[in-house]
Write a structure and sequence with these properties.
There is one protein chain. The chain is mainly alpha-helical. 56% of the residues lie in helices and 9% in strands. It is built from 15 helices and 6 strands. Strands 1-3-2 form a 3-stranded antiparallel sheet.
């Protein structure tokens, strides 16, 4: 009996071989790689794992960056196999994607070998006070190696988180920023502390509003000798130096203007009462003269 395959069977086998040959080889996962795997294989395994999970969750790179505190540019480089993330960065990305944390991320941060607790304290102070720095600058200032700086950043992670901060290291630069729960408040403080420069005309309008406590446009124009104040008041409101609120009880419901915290800061006063007292003293001195 002949054992030669039939024509149909040979065609099926040939098709299977073609499909197998055309199918791209499956990339090994990070867990499947040996410990001494070369850099390109490690980078490819990490990139594949993160990109597949992010795509499955319909997350953009920027959305993942906001969720994890890892910069979008660094995520892009990792997914393009241009960079292998640090243990801390990889742990944040996996946590943000809902993946099981690698074993190394489950270990509680300990002071890196060779670094004392006071070294970590100095590192945290440098990063916070300078709002980030280059790894090279930190290494030189602290008298330690670049590798020790990277390990130290992992060691101070919890210290920074305790005061609402995170640090991102991209291989050359350390950047610091507020955690999501503190970001809005930090932005508001920054806006309030930004002291704008005032023109004499703007300062005059603020002083009149402060002196009266609140004032309408008509009152301000009267005290300014009849000069039109519409555009001036509009600019002051736009810059956050005055706030305007309609007075529904008055005929025509005119806007009533009051000074803001930004205006007080711009005039060097901590409260409306302080500014009013200063204006009163100025009026008394002017009257004595």
């Amino acid at each position: 009996m002949s054992t030669r395959p039939t024509t149909a069977g040979a065609a099926v086998d040939g098709h299977r071989n073609e499909v197998a040959a055309a199918a791209p080889p499956r990339s090994p996962t990070l867990a499947e790689l040996p410990l001494d795997a070369p850099y390109p294989q490690v980078a490819a395994a990490i990139a594949t794992e993160l990109r597949r999970r992010r795509t499955a969750l319909h997350l953009g790179v920027r959305a993942l960056a906001r969720a994890t505190g890892v910069s979008a540019s660094l995520i892009s480089e990792i997914e393009r196999c241009k960079r292998v993330p640090s243990i801390a960065t990889f742990a944040r990305l996996r946590a943000g994607l809902g993946l099981d944390a690698p074993a190394s991320a489950l270990i509680a941060p300990q002071p890196p070998a060779g670094l004392l607790d006071e070294d970590l304290t100095r590192l945290a102070a440098c990063v916070v006070l300078q709002r980030g720095a280059t790894l090279a600058a930190l290494a030189e200032a602290l008298g330690i190696s670049l590798a020790a700086v990277r390990e130290g950043l992992l060691g101070i992670r919890d210290r920074l988180a305790a005061v609402g901060l995170y640090a991102v290291e991209d291989g050359a630069q350390v950047r610091i920023g507020p955690l999501d729960l503190a970001a809005a408040a930090a932005r508001q403080v920054a806006e309030l502390q930004a002291v704008p420069e005032l023109t004499a005309e703007q300062l005059e309008a603020i002083a009149l509003c402060a002196h009266l406590g609140s004032a309408t446009r008509r009152q301000i124009e009267h005290l300014r000798g009849g000069r039109d104040a519409e555009h001036l008041l509009r600019r002051l409101v736009a810059r956050g130096l005055l706030e305007a609120q309609s007075d529904a009880r008055a005929p025509g419901a005119p806007n009533v203007y009051r000074v803001t915290a930004t205006a007080l800061a711009a005039t060097g006063h901590a409260s409306l009462q302080s500014l009013q007292a200063s204006l009163a003293r100025g009026l008394e001195d002017g009257g004595d003269g």
